[in-house]
Each structure stands twice: as structure tokens, then as C-alpha cells.
Amino acid sequence: MAVDSSTFETLTPSQFITFTLPNTINPHHHHHRCHLYTPLLRIAVLDSPIATTDDPNPIIAAMIVPDHRETDWNFCTESGHLQLLYDFSNISRLILIGNNLDPNSEPLDYVRTVVDTVDVEKIECELKQLVIALHPKICFRNGVPKTLFLTYEDDVLQRVVVKRFVGPFVGEFLVEDVQLESKAFRRRLRFKRMPNLIQSQVPVVASVCNVELGLVSLGKMKKVEFRVDTGTLVQPYLTPMVSGLFLIVSSVNERIRQEFSPRALCLGVGGGALLSFLNSKLGFEVVGVEADEVVLSVARGYFGLTDGKSVKLIVGDAIQLIGGLNDKFDVVMVDLDSSEARSGTSAPPLEFVKKSVFRALRSLVYCHAVIVINVISPNELFYETLVQQLQDVFHKVYAMDVKNDGNIVLMATVSPIAANDHDCAFSKRLRAVVSGSYMESIVEL
Question: What is the helix (H) or strand (E) element at residue 239, kind and residue range?
Fold first, then answer.
């Protein structure tokens, strides 16, 4: 693709351009197989949605796509590129440079290789003139700008895409198995529209207990089977969400004593880890609402979610459905996020943060109930508005900082909390699966 160099002379909010250039990197300059080896290099340039043309000191950065991750949606889609840009603060333009592979080809297995820093520095040096040429004009006011190269880091050692799917609501998504630096195996659910966000993850146990072989090698062995463990929560914010039940242990215990099963409504199902845990570990009857039927079938087939008498699944829009449900619940767990990468990651979605929605939720629960919401705030105003509207509708609002990429769990009670008996049977059952230290981290707002 021919690109007019003047295209990059000014910052244009949300401008996204990809093109290819002949690979001029000399492989003989490097100790090992050169990281960038295809005849053409794929260059992707994205200007921040909040970039301004009159910024006198815009920050321009480049990143070399990690080896074997060229077909990973984090690096080959506009939505992934945008989330990478948001991960680094104050960047006005992010340039990705990588091998030119077909993003629609079979996804590559990823095995992290030991990076030779000398080689990386040489490659960056050879790419320097290209990166400078992609700077806007304003960067040259005081001479030739310095080049800033960023590196991508996560805790994934190996990655295998299990299968790709297309849902009518979420679009393209995939199930992948990963091996982490801790050597633990995880099964993950990721959506193409928000590829950097892990929608769900559960532990995976291999039938052959040889972690040293690695995920990719194990997967190629014919008799090795992988089993998901639905009894352990590994998504960082899910255990804090469950700990919201500490606020109502006595009321739930009383319901159980009267031979009623406690009831939970889960808005947003994903892989179903939260639903499986509430049902199998804490004895809840669970109703799950999920917008996409294909996501539900994947939760059943790949994440161990079993629906039946005590787990009921409903396909539909959570906000519309809560107005039409006639059930009553002891707890509502809200795990919904925005469907638009351009606004940055936010949970719950903006259309959920309304008093009318919270009033509808309040009408669905018993007087002793708690509403628990996973929150990722795109800005302070979003969080302040959410807290204020909850305080206007509910009796008290509590918070717990998850200490994970800005997640906060909010909890709203409908009525004054009865003196909780933390020696009751349900409290003991809860503390057997959730550390009591979580209870101590709940702060009244």
C-alpha cells in the first residue's frame, strides 16, 4: 500500500493506518534468527482519540511486535492497538512494527523466547529512521526528535488458541490455553473487540503432571487431556465480588436454616466461573443473564458451566431483562463491560449507570440483599457518578480495591445490615473458600 508521507505530518485523533514496507534489516547483524524476518514489514500507526494537533510536545512511541504474536488480536487489530496505546499514559501516537503475516491465518502457538537485548537494540537502531519519519512535523521544531521504543510484557510463557468463534452480539472471540510464569495453566476467553481484556479464565489441569514439558508440547501429546477446575476463582476481581456476601451472612444463613436455597442473579456470564463457584461451593441457585448465545454454548463446552435445576441461563440484554424478571434474589452480581474499545475499558457500561436501572435491581432482591458490581472506571467522573447514584437508591455503599489494573468492587445494601454472626454455618462455609482478610478490606463509602 502506497502511503503519502504527509499523512503523518499532523496528529489526527483516532487515525489508524496500516501499510507494508520492504524489510531492510540486515539478518547478518544479529546473533540468532532475526526477529523481523518477513520480506515485508507491517507498520501500523494509531493516533490517540484524545490527541490534539496543537500539543507542542506530543509523545510518539514505537513498539516491535513480540515474536510469534503477530496474529494475536492484541497486535493485529485496531481495537488491540488502541488498548495498547491506553496502557501507556499520555502517548499521542503509537507505531507498531512487526512481521507481515496474514492476521486471518491459523493463529500461531506462542512460546516465549529469551530475548537478546543486544539484538533488540540493534533492530531498534535499524528502525530508528523509519520511526523518525513517522513523527509529526511539530516534533522537529528543536531538531531531530529522539526515538522512544516501548516493550510489551505480560506473564504468559506459552499460548495455544483452542478455537475461534463468532457470536451474534460479541462478534469474533476465542478460547485459548496459556501457561503463566508461575507454571500454572489457564483457559481464557477473549473478545476481538476488546482483545487485551481477559473476559474469563479458569484453572486448567493436564492429565500428565509434567509442567516442565510446557503447554504446547503437552498439547501435542495424543493421550494428554486438559480438565477445567470450576472450584477455584483465578480472575482477580471474582473473589472480592464473592466476599460481598460477608455483608449478609446472617440473613443468608437464616434463609438456609428455613430450608430455602439462597439465590443469586449474575448479570454477565462469560465463561461462567462465578456462576459455577456460587453454585458448587456455596450452594446458591443461580440465574445467569448473557447477551450472546454462542458465548453460553462455549461456557458449557469449554469452561465447565453446567446448567440445570440449580443453574438457569437466560439469553438477552441484562438491562432490558431485569425489568421483566419476577424472581427475588439474595445477591445480584454485575460483571458487564463496555462493548466499545474506543471509549477505553469501562465496567459496567455507561448505559447501566442510571437510577432507573438500580431501582429495577432493587425491586428484584430481598430486603436483606446486596448488589455487587465489578467496576473499571475510565475516569474519576464515571466512578463518582456511579457511587452517587448507588447511594441515592440503596441504603449503604461499600467498596473494595482489587489492586488489579484499576478494578474496584462496589457493594450496595438494601437495608441496614443485621449484626452478622460470623460463627454461623454459612459464614464458616464462605470463609472456607474466601479468606476472611477480604471481609476486613470492605470499606463503607
Answer: helix 238-242
